[in-house]
């Protein structure tokens, strides 16, 4: 397995940071806390999400009967505004959720965790799946620990591929195989593939094909790296040259590729492992399948993604916060996440329970594909300006896919603006 480093760009879910922080031993900290209350802030996009978090908080309360633990949530859309405000005012919650790819812009708000901190939390790095702790590292420093891990897969519509007489993607398939399948399945007004608009969705194939990330290990932006840029041009050419994918209608179609796939307008698309169960049990009723990303001349490099918890720099009751963090990532809490099938847990011993939560008709496929996809993963390297890069590139992709701009020019412009 390749060494995993920095976690991935946000897309799996958001992180909600409320205005209230956690209190010190001297009473109220001016942010609504009390001397024995630890506030945990995490995203929740639905009542089900909140209920799942409350179940994990209940485990933390049971393991820490001497502490008061308060959960606060907000939607992903509110996260960054609140996080920026709370960092500036020193009022972040003691235990704050963080998605790996966004960490580089918010490291100032989190404590750098040490081996002693992990010991206080009752955790060890080898509790987690190999390399998973790299997800919330930035330039070698550990700012948090993950509760889940994910990577990108190729999802396919078996009914469409079979009707077109195309082979099915499988573990170990190549980019030549991918192109052949996509061409065969482009028929009858349908396309063999749907290009992505999200950072994960469009970058996954170029990274896998080139074996190169658009950011170097030290955080240097390298969008114009020869290998990555060439692979990105190939990816855009699936629309403009090969014609196996449709151009994107609008920059507002952020989920274009995924929607084209679920709408049965395209036979294949790239998305994360977090949507595996949803695709397999899709409302449209088609027979869905999955495979790791294709293998290129440089291997089959995929990114490991994930979210987790860190301790706020402003937290005055760090020891108590670490104990809560340890409980939220304990075997009991991770077993709950795995058994519910909500996400693939970061704790190694809990991962088998995730597969047991999958319906029997899909279980073996999910297990074999996940195991293969996580064999050769690398945490995404992220530059300090990475969020700005994504904001710039995403709307430009519409012009690229419509043949009005070249991927090389767009990446070159982004490199020039954000590469310093």
What this model shows, in words?
The protein is an alpha/beta fold. Helix content is 39%, strand content 14%. It has 15 helices and eleven strands. The strands form three sheets. Strands 1, 2, 3, 6, 10 and 11 form a six-stranded mixed β-sheet that branches. Strand 1 (37-43), helix 1 and strand 2 (68-74) form a beta-alpha-beta unit. The longest helix is centred in the N-terminal third of the chain and has 17 residues, at 47-63.
Task: Note the main attributes of this structure.
420 residues; alpha/beta; six-stranded mixed sheet; three-stranded antiparallel sheet; 15 helices; globular
Topology record:
Blueprint: E1 37-43, H1 47-63, E2 68-74, H2 79-89, E3 95-99, H3 115-121, E4 137-138, E5 141-142, E6 145-150, E7 152-157, H4 158-164, H5 175-185, H6 199-210, H7 226-240, H8 256-262, E8 268-272, H9 276-280, E9 288-292, E10 302-311, H10 318-328, H11 331-340, H12 351-357, H13 360-373, E11 377-379, H14 386-401, H15 407-418
Parallel strand pairs: 1-2, 1-3, 10-11
Antiparallel strand pairs: 3-10, 4-5, 6-10, 7-8, 7-9
